[in-house]
Amino acid sequence: MTTLTINNYSIPYEERRSSRYRRITLSILEDRVRISAPVNVSLKQLNDLLASKQEWILKHWLAKQAALKPPAKYIDGEHFSYRGNRIELKLKRHTGKMIRVSLEEQQLFVDLPQDLPQQEVELNIKAALISWYKAQARKFLKERLDRYAKQMQVSYKNFRLKYQKTSWGSCSSKGNINLNWRIIMAPDKGIDYIIIHELAHLTYLNHSKQFWQRVEDYMEDYTVWKLWFKTNGQKLRL
Predict the structure, then answer these.
(1) Which pTM value belongs to this model?
(2) How wide is the angle at C-alpha 22 spanned by C-alphas 17 and 25, nearest 5°?
(3) Of 10, 20, 90, 206, which is the most buried if we count CB atoms within 10 A?
(4) Which helix (H) or strand (E) holds 187?
(5) 57-83, pLDDT tens digit by residue?
(6) Which of 113, 114, 110 is closest to 80 using CA atoms?
(7) Is residue 144 located within the same domain as residue 224?
(8) Where does the YgjP-like metallopeptidase domain start and stop, copy by copy (predicted)?
(9) Within this chain, do residues 162 and 127 fall inside the same structural domain, yes or no?
């Protein structure tokens, strides 16, 4: 990955080309700026566009960085998001050897072995939370996926849980559905939007008007949740 230098700021930058792209688009992601273009667009055209958009790129890049959620602290009283709800981390010690995670109302309890060295506590809490979130996501997302697949009268081949920095889901030409486990932190309606979006790709493997109409058939306010992920997606992390 290369970098753009704008007013002494170094911004990670990547270029993507595909015959599927019909126009040049600029995207400000959490960790990079991406330019997507058809294969027949010249390098000069891309460079001219980047030069003309420097002020816009820098403005939105700095805004994106300012909006990023600060790193979580794995301490008693820290707050995390789960299905759109704000839950509080509560740490306890016990005499056993296993780390246990349980959700009780709005509190997420992590029971740690009494003899766990203090320097290993944070790393173990983070690993335990990721495992717990993935387990909840695997169950909940599969249930919602099956529910909407039945409603939309489509069948997918395989479902996999993934971790992706910039994608919430994907659907392959073979009918495989991948979902980012971090969407379990989003509100249920947001989760449903991602699932309906990917299932709609089983009918239209593109983003045509017909595709978006199919999404709207099952979620009239899908544009609200599409915008929600653009605005809040960077906050869905541990």
Answers:
(1) 0.71
(2) 65
(3) 90
(4) none
(5) 988 888 887 777 667 788 889 999 999
(6) 110
(7) yes
(8) 22-231
(9) no
